[in-house]
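COURSE: Structural Biology Practicum
ASSIGNMENT: Worksheet 4, Part C
STUDENT ID: 0417
INSTRUCTIONS: Below are two proteins. For each, the amino acid sequence is given first, followed by its structure token string. Answer the questions at the end about the second protein only.

PROTEIN I
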Amino acid sequence: MTELDRSPETIAPLDQSVLARFERPRVEEPVRLAVLADAHLATRAEGSWKALHRTEAALERAIADVNDRGVDGVLVAGDLTKDGEARNFDRYEQLIGRLDAPTATIPGNHDVPKAELDHRVMPVERFTERFCENGLPARRSFGGVDVLTLNTATHPHGRLRTSHDGVVGARQRRWLDDALADAETPIVLGHHPVLSLPEHEQFSRSHFTLRDADATLDALARHDVPLVFSGHHHLPATNRERGVREVIAPALCSYPRAYLLAEVGPEGTTIRFVPVETPTGAVDVRVHGAGGNRVGRKVTEWAERRLAAFPLVDERGGE
């Protein structure tokens, strides 16, 4: 029996649980950050392995839940919309305006122009004006934590217009070097992950990670960056290389439909997995994932394996 052959009754319940405990980053005064990723908001579309017909309600629930928790900030790791449609950006802007906490937002590969689309997508400069208060790349402070936001979804020469992969680029790496030089407790936010997961051998690695992942990791490791958040994969995951910890946020659109709550304090950082789908909806979302295309089926399977293995990392021995 495979992971996707199990009946809904045997799936682990999607309760709030600890995804990871890290020794770093640390701050004296606790800071709580919500991390939202891959909402793929679709006000008219239906179906697909992303269960597009449920995306609007899922985003609304996530925003309401985040407000109930009184977080210090919200990090949005890209792919706000299905494919950069104007109506979906408009609705996203209306919904995200309900957040009580300040936000730090970056675009995903579905938020930028792509040559194969049959509609116009606003340029990244316009995206930055609407959704990025401090521009891109940018530094945003939440208490004692400095969040450094990167645009990995576009390329200075436009060569990522038709792909899923991303790039940081030399200009942003120079900016990152400068920003990290005086950031006491930095967290880096990018849409595309820096580190590759073992499952990526089944697909093209560049489908998921940065084209310039090695050069970007060099910069992060050189400054001893304790934590990177990313999205794009649609599954909760952790990775570590050369001292750099990376946490991939689950998607708000596809199974298991959740966001992350990061609690940074004097003892270290705890990452909690917070579901946003109703029990009935969770079954529907899983069915769409299991019956989708090859990527959707595999991502659903990989997500279920990790849900069953929480916490994925515990550097503090369950304190």
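PROTEIN II
(use this one for the questions)
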Amino acid sequence: MRVVFMGTPDFAARLLKEIISRGHEIAAVYTQPPRPAGRGMAEKKSAVHLLAESFGLPVRTPKSLKSAETQADFAALDADVAVVAAYGLLLPQPILDAPRYGCLNLHGSLLPRWRGAAPIQRAIMAGDAESGVMVMKMEAGLDTGPVALTAKTPIGAEMTAGELHDRLAELGAPLMAQALDLLAKGELRFTPQPEDGACYAQKIEKAEARLDWRRSAQDLHDLVRGLSPFPGAFFEADLGHGKERVKVLRARVEEGAGPPGAALDDAGLIACGAGALRLLRVQRAGKGEMGIEEFLRGRKLGLGSVLVHRDRGGGDAP
């Protein structure tokens, strides 16, 4: 097949590598433009961009696909199919219509559940027991197209978004390769999605990442897992030189009761609205990930005050 590949992060890079290994012709690779990153804010190319360059593939990084010129350049590639995975731009109808067999998307959820931008994180944050990847044909609606192939995986009770991401990437690459093989033979069949159970996985907002100790320990545990390793659920603590954000990357639900935000022992057990959360792995701003023992060395989480900050109105807010 003559393929246009469209993707940006590591999840998509694994798929691109698989498609290349199967001998398909890559007409061009579309990915997000380099963006400032790191302490020096130097421009950094995406994982897909770097992989494509290593194979000598032509790379295109438009900021939008809306212009007639960009759409004409895409159509001129004369592709059999476009393969899309976590690309980051909406595809206008002329782009969807240009490849001979349309555009196939590898989506990281069991559609119609978690259509949208953050399906992996939302599934864990909601406490889902199962996830998966699906090969779907793209249409104008957001992740509403008919589905061809599915691979499922359980979400373990302690599984993080990073771990689920890696598992879905592992399942998704051969699944899309299988879809391309079937498409080339004229044997790829699609089934419309049901509307029952449809929900939207909206982008993660910064405010969502703050640990609100008034919530149940199980809810906060799912939040920690769903935002680990990035962007990371966090609390604020006074570590001796003013308030500082501390990310929680691993935690465990335990029994315990007390005022929400209060330390129940000297080993990272924090009272929640229901139950308690044991902090296991944390990360201070500008520092590496560390175990709670290392974090607490020379510090003490005092009852209530350390993990509670003052809102602007003067009241206590978790």
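ANSWER KEY EXCERPT:
Q1: DSSP finds eight helices and 18 strands in the chain.
Q2: The radius of gyration is 22 Å.
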